Amino acid sequence: MSSKPLGAFDVAIVGTGLSQSILAAALSKSGYKVLHLDPNQYYGSYHASLTLDELVMFSENYTPQQSSHPRYSEIQYDFPQTSEPSSELSKMSRHFSISLSPSLIPSKGAMIDSLIGSGVSRYGGFNLLQGIGMYVEEGETGYFRPVPASKEDIFKDKSMSRVEKLKLMKFLRYIVSDEGKLEPRDEITIKELISGDFGLPPFMASAVIYALAFSSSGNESSAAALSRIQHYMLSSGRYGNSPFLVGHYGGLGEVAQGFCRASAVYGGVYILGRQMESINFTEKGSPSSRYRICVNDVPDILEARTIVFPSSGIASVSSILSGLKPTVTEQETRLARCIAILDFQIVFEPANQPPADTFTIVFPPHMVGRHEKAVVALVTGEGTLSCPSGYYISYLVTEVEEDGVNRTAETILRPYLSSLLSKATTDASRQSPKEPLFELFYIEMSPTQSKFQPPPVQGAYLIDDSSPSVASFTECADHCAREAERVFWEVVKFVESDSGTETQERIAAPKAFWPISHLGDGSEAEGSEGF
Predict the structure, then answer these.
(1) DSSP of 440-472, one letter per residue?
(2) Of these four, 169, 245, 440, 479, which has the most CB atoms within 10 Å of its CB?
(3) β-strand partners of 307
């Protein structure tokens, strides 16, 4: 390996997850030299969007034994209709964009601000979520009942009495009022607040808790749940009659790749598909060579003034770190996930309305599979450009209780997938029951906290890319954008105060997370949001 460095970077960022990708774009656009590394051959890391062939390869090749803190476990996949991929499905593999971390993006929030401020909103497309439904038990069976998304929907809903509508409107007015904002009510749960203080009937209470707040349990603090409801209500109406957007081509993975493109436009250097052999930290010599990184098949030494690691992935590189001592908590949040490819449509809208292309179904706790946490399903069709015409991708996710560690993702989620399939469109030419073309079950695990020991470590930062709960289904995108901005200012503060900054070519430190562009990408154009 050559002893000559490829170049001195201001910051090296490990992993191309959504948080890291936003950070890379912001730093590059502010004039900092960014090196972005990812051992995977695709962008997005844990938020990646994969083709069907790539997803099958990921399922076969991922080995949790290689890490003391693996992100995934209990990966099982199958082709129920054919036992193996059909030739027709194989030919269409590249037409599927399947997300490892499916999420909805609120129409107002940190992520939308970053998409607009960076100009990345022009690199991809977004659709409005067309509806939210909730499973309602009726005898031994059940059905999917649409949840009103606006004041207009509430008053059009013929299933609610006038008294029920007035109670619901009273609650929603409280949410957006100063009283609702100033009284977080930490001392009571969201279920106690809604059922007690406002007296909402069972369906409406469940709809608020699980389909508006996206709580995994009614025992969640009312403060956190109310904060999310406020956020989503303020998001409704910005781009249409829904508070949520769904990204094209798999969602957050494509968004992450868009931010990486933006970083590259402003000089960011990318190395993907190469394993890092060593990361050496030293306080001797020039600050610009504080971190020396050796990458497989890259003959030059890579040097950086600062370095950023993903908090949930720090354990996977701890063995190659020299001079740094990261510690990772053993406590983990576990999410059971399922991905299913369907060649038929799921229907939950009333018969007099056309079926939705992209929608969410929420199963409250203790229904269908009797799981103690809520289960959320997202169904995406060709409108999101994530699959060919006539095909759909269904995602299911739920939290796994500590006493359920020994249960597999398939054991937990199979009943809910079956419930979805039972609401498929009828087709006399097909046999019942309908089965997916492809299904994948797996457990996702995220360390809740990581840190360097002993602190402080000069120029080393951790950025949170975890998926802490079912609420991350709607909060993940904004969380990643906020994390990127937090670490952005920490890196800027350190680099600008570091010795040796005379070698930098910047005129002045940035005054905004997304400074106005001067490269003609149009990101400064007022009102041109790109949606």
Answers:
(1) EEEEEEEES-EEESSSP-TTEEEE-----STTH
(2) 245
(3) 12, 460
Residue 272 backbone phi and psi in degrees, to 5 = -115, 155
Tokens of 458: 């000069």
The CA-atom distances, in angstroms, between 345 and each of 50, 96, 341, 419, 427 are 22, 16, 11, 13, 10
What CATH class is the domain 5-51+249-329+449-503?
A: alpha beta
Q: Give the torsion sign (CA, 192, 198, 204, 210).
A: negative
Q: Are 416 and 368 in contact (CB under 8 A)?
A: yes
291-318 per-position pLDDT tens digit = 888 898 888 889 999 999 887 766 556 6
What Cα–Cα distance (Å) separates residue 429 from each residue in 81, 387, 434?
A: 15, 23, 11
Other C-beta atoms within 10 Å of 128: how many?
A: 19
Which residues in 25-107 belong to E strands, given as ranges? 34-38, 49-50, 72-78, 98-99, 105-106
Domain borders along the chain are 5-51+249-329+449-503, 60-95+126-148+236-247+332-447, 150-230
CA dist., res. 168 & res. 174, Å (int): 10
For residues 314 and 328, the answer to whether their CB atoms sit within 8 Å is yes
Sign of CA dihedral 495, 500, 501, 503: negative
List the single range of 78-87, 210-219, 386-395, 408-417 with lowest mean pLDDT.
Answer: 78-87
Distance of CA 221 to the CA centre of its chain: 22
Both tokens of 319, joined, read: 């063995």
Please determine, for residue 451, whether its predicted confidence score (pLDDT) is greater than 70: no
Query: Strand, coil or helix: what is 375?
Result: strand
Angstrom CA distances, 171 to 131, 188, 196, 214, stand at 21, 16, 12, 17
**What's the CA gap between 114 and 171, in Å, rounded?**
31
Give CATH for domain 150-230. Answer: 1.10.405.10
| CATH number for the segment(s) 60-95+126-148+236-247+332-447 | 3.30.519.10
CA-nearest of 340, 335, 316 to 40 is 316
Q: Cα dist. 283→7, 10, 277, 294, 363 in Å?
A: 18, 16, 20, 18, 54
In sequence order, the 6+-apart residues with CB closer than 8 A to the CB of 114 are 22, 26, 120, 259, 481, 484, 485, 513, 514
Alpha carbons within 13 A on the beta-carbon side of 173: 7
Q: Answer whether 80's CB lies under 8 Å from 435's CB.
A: yes
Predicted local distance difference test score (pLDDT) of residue 21: 97
Distance of CA 259 to the CA centre of its chain: 15
- Model confidence at 182: pLDDT above 90: no
Other CB atoms within a 10 A radius of the CB of residue 123 amount to 18
C-alpha span between 227 and 176 (Å, rounded): 10
What is the C-alpha to C-alpha distance for residues 205 and 147, in angstroms, rounded to an integer? Answer: 11
- Provide the Cα torsion 7, 8, 12, 18; round to 10°: -70
CB contact at 8 A, 341 and 387: yes
